[in-house]
Backbone:
């Protein structure tokens, strides 16, 4: 490896002075995103050097609102001259709305830059990935306009730890579906804007084989030589769920380069010269086109960074004429000739704008094409080939695992199996397992036996995930779930390691085993002895409607399948009389007070509808739900929960201690409207970050009144919305037996008392009340209508002289 391959030189903007115009293109369209409408540019000019413009278009929305499928700016978009862009952009229908511009994101956010200057305003506020929703901007250019154009993407992610985002362009045919990627995907690890624009890498043109490119820093990206008519600018956050990059989109420019101006006639477009701090009016000659001595650095033959490439060559390669190593890989731009063919260490064929030209995870400067593997720092590989030895094993994977990336023989080749786990190297690569460890997930099953098909065939073809010791997430290790269909002991449960609920009765295998239930019988709960279902969020808040959030009386859902669910409207209500599973008055009532009612989406089946609407606690204060007059001597309680955010949990409990308070993990609950959504969560009081599921089951209750509550738990350590979608009472002992439960005497007038009888009753029933002094002769003294599951009757003015008086009640 020759030292002549390494070169680095740069000139900072602070060291230069310029007296030329900061804008040198014919026309552009600037689109700026913000989270409020109180910021405008007017005629102020803003943007990176060479691209600054006036008349930016502002698109804004409430930061907390979804902006999916939201048409933009009915008033019309304008260009940098302030003219309508009707001739440049064409209207395309998006979800019933015709607009030339369309965007979608999780929400918008505001950074901490402030608005001291127009440039600061440009970099303050952005479309936000939100952790799970890639922002995009759709444009549709007219056929006869902007035939060649450049896109400038401005990004400033509010100081998020990196990588903060990845950016690329697509060509789309349908406005709401994924497009064809046409450029490399540029990842930026630091996009901080502190008053200075920093370009991320060189300029990027369309490519036939897009790759992921990582750039250490930069707050704007230039994509040039674009011709597609339907363009999508897309971004994505790249961090993990605990510390995600936002993938911010602050602003975008579409710059018309169809007829580039070249004021000094040196073959270098004015736009390019200005962006690279060269004088567009000086061709570098003596005399120059103005008849005065020129600065040679400004002309086509100039070489201000001293890297051996003229300005014209830098322009043709899209490299930076003021940085001898545009991509920062320690290889001079001059030797990275971008041919894709290695000739020598001074003609490497690599891309001078990308530090890893072949996208194999090994930077160009260490791939010296010697053919000799020395170490990870000197692998001897070809920087233009991601798989130097063409054995289908990428160079970086082979290097990382100690194989020779220049050899396809024996252990180094596709069929190698150095760890003797019956999984050859190519399978280890595809599965993501460790080729040097026969049991990557340490579950005592060889990687080669865990084929990750999801279907158990035999003990040597288990269907399980070789990277997860508990494939189905039921807390039973794959190795003990032998799928034989009968339980032996905790080391041989006989359950299916690919199914958390082997017998499909809604209850997880581990819970059934722990609670002495049979995990193989497939017998779910039922409402043979009665059931009451409560469906919250049925008012269709958040733009929904009750038809999409309510359950039809005939709809059957719940883990004990029942019809006649009670659709409850509003964040607070009651007392509301509750129907049972047969549609009769159960005698029970519910009263609830919550901070918010919400719904999102449409339930595409009854189970989905049960989960699309909810009530939530948002303030860290307990929100009560009181169910009174429960008619069952014994019953099981089920609570259902779901949310449209991924980090919001709920504390659920009963004020009188009928059951312990639990933290229900909404992080992994099914998304709104999904089918197959009723999955048990086996929660604990402390919470479990690995929980999955959308219902929690509490058996063996007897209280006729439940004083339930929900509380916002957020993710661990925070308070933010905690929501439930429904409650179900499943009778286990039927209605309470018919019996007089109390007789009370109350003094009335002198010598008289009032006698009150109370008995267990059936809802909507008639009862006759009889009295007797000797248990022989009975007289009906009244008949009365049931008051629910408990009914009272008072006989007034009974003489105290009646030493004995007997009562009986009969169902009519």
Residues:
């Amino acid at each position: 490896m020759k030292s002549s391959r390494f070169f680095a030189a740069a000139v900072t903007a602070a060291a230069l002075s310029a007296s030329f115009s900061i804008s040198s293109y014919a026309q552009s369209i600037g689109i700026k995103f913000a989270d409020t409408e109180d910021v405008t540019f007017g005629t102020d000019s803003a943007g990176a050097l060479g691209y600054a413009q006036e008349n930016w278009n502002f698109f804004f929305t409430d930061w907390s609102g979804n902006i999916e499928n939201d048409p933009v700016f009915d008033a019309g978009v304008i260009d940098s001259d302030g003219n309508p862009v009707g001739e440049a952009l064409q209207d395309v229908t998006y979800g019933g709305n015709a607009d030339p511009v369309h965007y979608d994101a999780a929400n918008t956010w505001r950074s901490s830059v402030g608005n001291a200057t127009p440039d600061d305003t440009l970099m303050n506020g952005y479309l936000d990935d939100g952790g799970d929703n890639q922002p995009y901007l759709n444009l549709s250019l007219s056929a006869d306009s902007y035939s060649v154009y450049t896109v400038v993407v401005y990004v400033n992610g509010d100081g998020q730890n990196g990588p903060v985002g990845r950016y690329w362009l697509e060509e789309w045919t349908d406005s709401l579906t994924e497009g064809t990627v046409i450029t490399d995907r540029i990842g930026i690890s630091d996009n901080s804007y502190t008053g200075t624009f920093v370009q991320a890498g060189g300029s990027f043109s369309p490519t036939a084989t897009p790759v992921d490119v990582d750039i250490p820093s930069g707050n704007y990206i230039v994509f040039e030589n674009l011709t597609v008519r339907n363009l999508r600018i897309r971004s994505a956050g790249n961090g993990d769920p605990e510390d995600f990059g936002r993938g911010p989109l602050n602003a975008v420019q579409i710059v018309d380069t169809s007829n580039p101006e070249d004021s000094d006639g040196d073959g270098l477009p004015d736009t390019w010269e200005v962006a690279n701090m060269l004088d567009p009016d000086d061709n570098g000659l003596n005399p120059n086109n103005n008849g005065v001595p020129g600065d040679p650095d400004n002309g086509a033959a100039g070489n201000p960074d001293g890297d051996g490439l003229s300005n014209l060559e830098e322009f043709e390669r899209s490299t930076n004429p003021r940085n001898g190593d545009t991509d920062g890989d320690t290889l001079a731009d001059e030797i990275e000739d971008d041919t894709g063919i290695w000739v020598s260490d001074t003609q490497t064929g690599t891309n001078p704008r990308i530090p890893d030209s072949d996208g194999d995870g090994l930077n160009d400067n260490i791939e010296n094409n010697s053919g000799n593997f020395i170490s990870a720092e000197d692998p001897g590989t070809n920087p233009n080939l991601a798989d130097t030895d063409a054995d289908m094993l990428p160079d970086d994977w082979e290097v990382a695992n100690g194989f020779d990336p220049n050899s396809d023989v024996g252990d180094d080749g596709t069929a190698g199996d150095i760890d003797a786990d019956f999984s050859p190297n190519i399978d280890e690569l595809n599965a993501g397992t460790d080729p040097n460890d026969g049991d990557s997930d340490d579950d005592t099953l060889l990687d080669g036996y865990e084929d990750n098909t999801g279907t158990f065939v035999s003990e040597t073809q288990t269907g399980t995930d070789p990277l997860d010791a508990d494939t189905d997430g039921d807390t039973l290790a794959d190795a003990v779930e032998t799928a034989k269909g009968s339980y032996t002991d905790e080391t041989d449960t006989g359950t299916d390691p690919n199914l958390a609920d082997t017998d499909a009765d809604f209850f997880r295998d581990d819970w059934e085993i722990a609670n002495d239930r049979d995990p193989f019988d497939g017998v779910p709960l039922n409402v043979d002895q009665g059931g009451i279902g409560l469906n919250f969020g049925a008012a269709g808040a958040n733009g929904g409607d009750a038809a999409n959030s309510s359950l039809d009386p005939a709809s059957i859902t719940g883990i004990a399948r029942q019809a006649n669910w009670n659709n409850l409207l509003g964040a607070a209500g009651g007392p509301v009389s509750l129907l049972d599973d047969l549609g009769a008055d159960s005698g029970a009532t519910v009263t609830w007070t919550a901070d918010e009612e919400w719904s999102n989406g449409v339930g595409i089946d009854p189970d989905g509808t049960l989960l699309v609407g909810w009530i939530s606690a948002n303030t860290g204060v307990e929100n009560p739900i009181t169910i009174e007059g429960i008619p069952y001597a014994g019953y099981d309680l089920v609570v259902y929960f779901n949310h449209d955010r991924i980090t919001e949990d709920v504390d659920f409990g009963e004020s009188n201690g009928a059951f312990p308070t639990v933290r229900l993990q909404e992080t992994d609950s099914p998304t709104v409207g999904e089918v197959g959504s009723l999955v048990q969560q086996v929660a604990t009081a402390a919470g479990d970050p690995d929980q999955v599921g959308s219902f929690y089951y509490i058996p063996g209750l007897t209280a006729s009144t439940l004083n339930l509550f929900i509380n916002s738990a957020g993710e661990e350590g925070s308070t933010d919305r905690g929501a439930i979608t429904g409650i179900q009472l499943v009778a286990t002992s039927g209605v309470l037996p018919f019996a007089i439960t109390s007789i009370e005497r109350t003094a009335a007038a002198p010598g008289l008392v009032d006698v009150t009888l109370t008995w267990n009753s059936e809802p909507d029933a008639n009862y006759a009340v009889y009295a007797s002094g000797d248990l022989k002769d009975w007289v009906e003294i009244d008949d009365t209508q049931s008051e629910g599951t408990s009914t009272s009757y008072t006989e007034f003015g009974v003489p105290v002289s009646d030493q004995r008086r007997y009562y009986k009640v009969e169902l009519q």
